[in-house]
Amino acid sequence: MLNLQPYENPMYFVYLLIGLIPVIIGLFYGKRFRWYESLFSLFFIILIFDADKWPQGQALIVYVLYNTLLVWGYTKYRTAAESKNKTWVFVLAVILGIAPLTVVKFTPLFATHPSILGFLGISYLTFKVVGMIMETRDGSIKEFNLIKFWQFLLFFPTISSGPIDRYRRFIADYDSVPDRQKYTELFSKAIHYLMLGFLYKFILGYIFGTLLYPYMQHMAIVAGQHTFLHLSWGVVGVMYAYSGYLFFDFAGYSLFAVAISYFMGIETPMNFNQPFKSYNIKDFWNRWHMTLSFWFRDYIYMRFVFFMMKHKLVKSRVATAAIGYFLLFGIMGVWHGETWYYIVYGLFHAVLINLTDMWIRFKKKHKGLLPSNKFTYYFSVFLTFNTVCFSFLIFSGFLDQLWFH
Amino acid sequence: MNHEDIKNGVIDILVDLTGSDDVRDNLDINLFDTGLLDSMGTVQLLLELQSQFGIDVPVSEFERDEWATPNKIIAKVESM
């Protein structure tokens, strides 16, 4: 049977666009053919998980049923007329929500085979589920609707790698039909994003990832044979090549997912906003893999800080912020995988963001002490860019290869 | 509570949190784009609004766009 991984090759887009024709015509005439959309989505999900990927498909089915029960159960508990809204029930629901992903992520530490619970996109589905549980706890999501839950969870353009949408935002789009003017706008943006995505993923991503990156790796390994820590200019080349690849490949992928969503009248949020123009690390995280960093910000960092401050667990707000950052980036590091370089990458960013906060406080205290002009601005952009690229060098795992293999 | 009290109360909180008088001079300044308020500042804002005005805003209900300027925050507080 045919198996197609999302957005991997140009033919995929041909199939997709053929399937999208009825959706597009419908939306132009103010109609949403929900049945057709569902069948179309299901068809492309099956193409991801059929044939030799069928074990993953079975894991996906089990996962969806498990989480359907979980979210239904928690919503029922939370919205009952006399719900006690106990914290322990909420905590239990969150733990059950992240349990499958945790098992999948930690299995490689203990076994030689990947977990049978795993499938492509489990992380992104877990983010959606846990977000829903938290918003249900807050009383922001007030009901459970099976069809809408599945539509949200299994929205196929974003199923494998995001961007991560939010339930209420998604459903507001799903429940409505954009008017002609709005849809024309979405349609032309979608075309633009598709083209940009092709440029990013298939041209620039290819140049950086398939041509430059292996070339630089080879140079670094040869040049570093007898040097201190095996360092050489080749490592610098690896750093920039990998950073370029990481951005263009993933930003391209995200643009495809957003474009296909727009064709379907769903405004999936953007993932990247010119991250290499950031003037500091905080700015960077507001522009890089935004739906993930906002998810961590809203569902982990802010809730953690809110809890700590409300119960006055730590007196100093500087210390609270610092603990929050280490928690956030620590989890983000571990989520990428249990290797030293992902964890160091997370901690590196936690340290950087704490230093940034210290620097901002210092500047506030000593106003007028330091110049602030075009030059200092471009210097901060330059510094941020190189620091971020260095963090991607850690992230790439190349140092692991260079030092330990 | 009347409009002036709410307005002054909110501005005082913001001046305190941002450490800047900009929020007093320009009620339409974007607190997030300018970096005056970050996530930590946002949480403190929510807690202050809770203790001073008794309004309860869960983190889920905090849409940055809807709370981005002093004027928007004042309008939010008044509507609650």
Automatic annotation (TrEMBL), chain A:
<feature type="transmembrane region" description="Helical">
    <location>
        <begin position="342"/>
        <end position="360"/>
    </location>
</feature>
<comment type="pathway">
    <text>Cell wall biogenesis; lipoteichoic acid biosynthesis.</text>
</comment>
<feature type="transmembrane region" description="Helical">
    <location>
        <begin position="12"/>
        <end position="30"/>
    </location>
</feature>
<keyword id="KW-0472">Membrane</keyword>
<feature type="transmembrane region" description="Helical">
    <location>
        <begin position="190"/>
        <end position="216"/>
    </location>
</feature>
<keyword id="KW-1133">Transmembrane helix</keyword>
<feature type="transmembrane region" description="Helical">
    <location>
        <begin position="87"/>
        <end position="104"/>
    </location>
</feature>
<dbReference type="InterPro" id="IPR024024">
    <property type="entry name" value="DltB"/>
</dbReference>
<keyword id="KW-0808">Transferase</keyword>
<protein>
    <recommendedName>
        <fullName>Teichoic acid D-alanyltransferase</fullName>
        <ecNumber>2.3.1.-</ecNumber>
    </recommendedName>
</protein>
<feature type="transmembrane region" description="Helical">
    <location>
        <begin position="375"/>
        <end position="399"/>
    </location>
</feature>
<keyword id="KW-0012">Acyltransferase</keyword>
<dbReference type="GO" id="GO:0005886">
    <property type="term" value="C:plasma membrane"/>
</dbReference>
<dbReference type="Pfam" id="PF03062">
    <property type="entry name" value="MBOAT"/>
</dbReference>
<comment type="function">
    <text>O-acyltransferase that catalyzes D-alanylation of both teichoic acid and lipoteichoic acid (LTA). D-alanylation of LTA plays an important role in modulating the properties of the cell wall in Gram-positive bacteria, influencing the net charge of the cell wall. Catalyzes D-alanylation from DltC carrier protein.</text>
</comment>
<dbReference type="GO" id="GO:0016746">
    <property type="term" value="F:acyltransferase activity"/>
</dbReference>
<feature type="transmembrane region" description="Helical">
    <location>
        <begin position="57"/>
        <end position="75"/>
    </location>
</feature>
<dbReference type="InterPro" id="IPR051085">
    <property type="entry name" value="MB_O-acyltransferase"/>
</dbReference>
<dbReference type="InterPro" id="IPR004299">
    <property type="entry name" value="MBOAT_fam"/>
</dbReference>
<dbReference type="InterPro" id="IPR024194">
    <property type="entry name" value="Ac/AlaTfrase_AlgI/DltB"/>
</dbReference>
<comment type="similarity">
    <text>Belongs to the membrane-bound acyltransferase family.</text>
</comment>
<feature type="transmembrane region" description="Helical">
    <location>
        <begin position="318"/>
        <end position="336"/>
    </location>
</feature>
Automatic annotation (TrEMBL), chain B:
<dbReference type="GO" id="GO:0036370">
    <property type="term" value="F:D-alanyl carrier activity"/>
</dbReference>
<dbReference type="InterPro" id="IPR036736">
    <property type="entry name" value="ACP-like_sf"/>
</dbReference>
<comment type="function">
    <text>Carrier protein involved in the D-alanylation of lipoteichoic acid (LTA). The loading of thioester-linked D-alanine onto DltC is catalyzed by D-alanine--D-alanyl carrier protein ligase DltA. The DltC-carried D-alanyl group is further transferred to cell membrane phosphatidylglycerol (PG) by forming an ester bond, probably catalyzed by DltD. D-alanylation of LTA plays an important role in modulating the properties of the cell wall in Gram-positive bacteria, influencing the net charge of the cell wall.</text>
</comment>
<keyword id="KW-0597">Phosphoprotein</keyword>
<protein>
    <recommendedName>
        <fullName>D-alanyl carrier protein</fullName>
    </recommendedName>
</protein>
<feature type="modified residue" description="O-(pantetheine 4'-phosphoryl)serine">
    <location>
        <position position="39"/>
    </location>
</feature>
<dbReference type="Pfam" id="PF00550">
    <property type="entry name" value="PP-binding"/>
</dbReference>
<keyword id="KW-0963">Cytoplasm</keyword>
<dbReference type="InterPro" id="IPR003230">
    <property type="entry name" value="DltC"/>
</dbReference>
<keyword id="KW-0596">Phosphopantetheine</keyword>
<dbReference type="GO" id="GO:0071555">
    <property type="term" value="P:cell wall organization"/>
</dbReference>
<dbReference type="GO" id="GO:0005737">
    <property type="term" value="C:cytoplasm"/>
</dbReference>
<comment type="similarity">
    <text>Belongs to the DltC family.</text>
</comment>
<comment type="pathway">
    <text>Cell wall biogenesis; lipoteichoic acid biosynthesis.</text>
</comment>
<feature type="domain" description="Carrier">
    <location>
        <begin position="4"/>
        <end position="80"/>
    </location>
</feature>
<dbReference type="GO" id="GO:0070395">
    <property type="term" value="P:lipoteichoic acid biosynthetic process"/>
</dbReference>
<dbReference type="InterPro" id="IPR009081">
    <property type="entry name" value="PP-bd_ACP"/>
</dbReference>
<keyword id="KW-0961">Cell wall biogenesis/degradation</keyword>
